[in-house]
């Protein structure tokens, strides 16, 4: 009985959405720095709400990502030997683990530093870039899951262009 | 920042290098390596006897797979046959996916245009997979008339080599990313 699909779609969607919101926040941070730092302004409120969405989105997404990885190894029709024989599954296993590391970093750093993560140039750029990379990984992993199940994905041209999966 | 960009660039270079070895998006091994040959999956073609063909002149093979067929696949890298001596209009067809003209569940009907690349006598193999571990294959003998030189098939990819590269990446990349993320986290937390 397929259990993995039950756990993979939600966190993929939320982490991809987080990446988009991070891009918005990065733009806001670069374009309206002073307004964001002024309490009570509309821009500061919007920025704060988006920051909260990113933080909780990353937490929920991380939990879903781990659940997705665990259930990925629980499919009776896909024992580990079969998974490893498939380049798509090899890619998904490797980059799922790396994505988990990225999201642990994002959650821990944001929890520890708070919204001051958006103050320093190094911290907000690192936070933003890692979140965007994580979101892109989620999209690619989801697309490759689609290829594994349906034989094709709407992202096929992009996957072929990049040459995924490696190796 | 320099650290993270440098690291990600390194990943890109390393993995892109690995990609040269992996020429295909899909599974490279023959289905029979992992699946069982199951008589429940029936494959019929419109081919009777040996196909007489000519170099660069495509011919059409009609394939009907029933009995729980989920995926039809032709890989050029299967080293036990001569699939790399031909080009195909499609190499992967899913049940009710693109190319499947049979809307019934578990049945695939497809017309594949096959173009011979070099003269000679060849065996072309098509695999159809169903629910794991069911799979079955059909071989088509093709006698190709035309030049027997001037074409070198791509070296088949060795799946064991790819798995070895993947293991190396698992053992190097995962700890490396972990260490870099820890260093970055410490740096950001201390500076905040």
Distance linking N and C termini of chain B = 15 Å
Percent of residues in helices of chain A: over 70%
In the CATH classification, which architecture of the domain at 22-154 in chain B applies?
Sandwich
| CATH overall fold name of the domain at 22-154 in chain B | Immunoglobulin-like
Distance separating the two termini of chain A:
29 Å
Strand content of chain A: under 5%
**Major sheet of chain B, described briefly?**
6 strands, mixed
Strands of chain B, total number:
10
What's the CATH C level of the domain at 22-154 in chain B?
Mainly Beta
Radius of gyration of chain B: 22 Å
Quaternary state reads: heterodimer
Spans of chain A of at least 5 consecutive residues whose pLDDT stays below 50 are: none
> What is the arithmetic mean of pLDDT of chain A?
91
Percentage of residues in strands of chain B: 25-35%
What is the makeup of the main sheet of chain A?
A: none
Structural class from helices and strands of chain A? mainly alpha
Order of helices and strands of chain B: HEEEEEEEEEEH
In total, the number of strands of chain A is 0
What is the helix tally of chain A?
Answer: 7
Can you tell me the overall shape of chain A?
elongated
């Amino acid at each position: 009985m397929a259990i993995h699909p039950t756990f993979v779609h939600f966190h993929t969607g939320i982490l991809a959405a987080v990446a988009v919101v991070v891009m918005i926040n990065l733009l806001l941070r670069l374009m309206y720095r002073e307004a964001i730092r002024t309490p009570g302004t509309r821009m500061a409120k919007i920025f704060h709400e988006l920051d909260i969405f990113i933080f909780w989105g990353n937490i929920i997404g991380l939990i879903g990502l781990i659940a997705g990885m665990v259930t990925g190894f629980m499919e009776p029709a896909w024992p580990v030997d079969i998974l490893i024989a498939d380049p798509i599954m090899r890619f998904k296993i490797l980059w799922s683990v790396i994505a988990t590391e990225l999201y642990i970093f994002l959650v821990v750093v944001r929890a520890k530093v708070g919204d001051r993560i958006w103050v320093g140039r190094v911290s907000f750029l690192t936070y933003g870039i890692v979140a965007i990379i994580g979101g892109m990984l989620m999209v690619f992993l989801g697309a490759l899951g689609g290829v594994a199940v349906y034989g094709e994905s709407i992202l096929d041209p992009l996957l072929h262009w990049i040459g995924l999966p490696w190796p | 920042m320099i650290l993270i960009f440098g690291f990600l660039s390194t990943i890109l270079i390393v993995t892109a290098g690995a990609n040269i070895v992996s020429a295909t998006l899909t599974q490279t091994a023959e289905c029979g390596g992992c699946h069982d040959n199951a008589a429940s999956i029936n494959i019929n073609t419109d081919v009777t006897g040996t196909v007489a063909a000519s170099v660069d002149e495509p011919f059409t093979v009609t394939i009907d797979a029933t009995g729980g067929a989920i995926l039809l696949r032709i890989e050029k890298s299967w080293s036990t046959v001569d699939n790399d001596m031909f080009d195909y209009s499609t190499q992967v067809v899913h049940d009710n996916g693109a190319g499947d003209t049979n809307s019934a569940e578990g049945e695939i009907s497809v017309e594949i245009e096959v173009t011979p690349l070099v003269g000679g006598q060849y065996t072309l193999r098509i695999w159809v997979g169903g629910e794991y571990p069911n799979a079955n294959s059909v071989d088509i003998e093709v006698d190709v008339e035309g030049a027997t030189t001037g074409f070198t098939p791509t070296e088949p990819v060795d799946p064991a080599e790819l798995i070895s590269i993947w293991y190396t990446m698992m053992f190097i990349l995962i700890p490396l990313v972990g260490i870099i993320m820890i260093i970055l986290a410490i740096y950001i937390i201390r500076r905040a």
